[in-house]
Design brief:
Blueprint (H helix, E strand, L loop, with lengths): L1 H19 L20 E2 L5 E2 L10 H8 L4 E6 L6 E11 L2 E9 L3 H10 L2 E4 L5 E4 L2 H7 L4 E8 L5 H8 L4 E4 L4 E6 L4 E6 L5 E4 L6 H17 L1
Antiparallel strand pairs: 1-2, 3-4, 3-7, 4-5, 5-8, 6-7, 8-12, 9-10, 10-11, 11-12
């Protein structure tokens, strides 16, 4: 029993410590102390920079240059929706943190519909969500389009105390359920979804555009409160 408990403790430490302690989880060619999720730079004019990117300013080509060529670009669509143009990394080193990264490209609905008409194929993902591959011409055009949001899912689970330690006290806390809550940081343009049963989600936008993140969350909370 003691051996089993020791083994469990070792595994937990191996998963958690790289996120908590600088220098661990180091990869060759990656500076473990730069591009970390909590290293957000503000420009004083409603803009921000994180991972070397500026939400609302940087293009998909900039994302590729900073985070690498292993990016999948496609339209992700729910049933009866136009969908969103996204770039996806299955794993990226952000300093000493490994994470999945999703960037949402700023594309008008009309352009999304046109891209879907020219698309090569659609592949079903989880449930009825579809992943629609772009025509090569549209893929080339997408490289010059701006990224409006960056979403990060760390490979390790975080608790709320760790998030607060790294980012500070949130300006607002929206409870989703007993084990899920959104921690809102409007000055940094950041929403952190803490999930006691799953992976955490960090969403970055330019602070000037923070309402695009916060308003749907508040509306959802208001709707639930009205039902109750």
């Amino acid at each position: 029993m003691k051996f089993a408990l020791s083994l469990i403790a070792f595994v937990i430490a191996a998963l958690i410590l790289p996120f908590l302690l600088p220098g661990l989880g180091k990869q060759e060619g990656v500076d473990p102390n730069s591009n970390l999720p909590w290293q957000i730079t503000l420009d004083g004019q409603g803009g921000s920079s994180v991972f070397g990117l500026q939400p609302g300013v940087s293009t998909l080509a900039d994302v590729r240059r900073h985070l690498g060529d292993m990016i999948e670009v496609a339209i992700i669509a729910q049933p009866d929706e136009e969908g969103a143009l996204e770039g996806y990394y299955s794993q990226v080193p952000l300093g000493f943190v490994l994470a999945k990264v999703i960037v949402t490209v700023d594309v008008p609905k009309e352009a999304i519909l046109a891209m879907r008409e020219r698309a090569l194929k659609a592949k079903h993902m989880e449930s009825t969500t579809r992943k629609i591959t772009l025509h090569p011409d549209d893929l080339a055009l997408a490289e010059q389009m701006r990224v409006k949001a960056i979403s990060v899912i760390p490979t390790v689970n975080l608790d709320e105390a760790t998030v607060v330690q790294r980012f500070g006290q949130p300006a607002e806390r929206l409870v989703v359920s007993e084990k899920r809550a959104h921690l809102l940081y409007p000055q940094q343009g950041l929403d952190v979804l803490v999930d006691g049963d799953g992976k955490e989600l960090l969403q970055y936008v330019a602070p000037r555009n923070f309402a695009t993140l916060a308003e749907p969350l508040r509306a959802s909370e208001a709707a639930k409160a009205a039902v109750q």
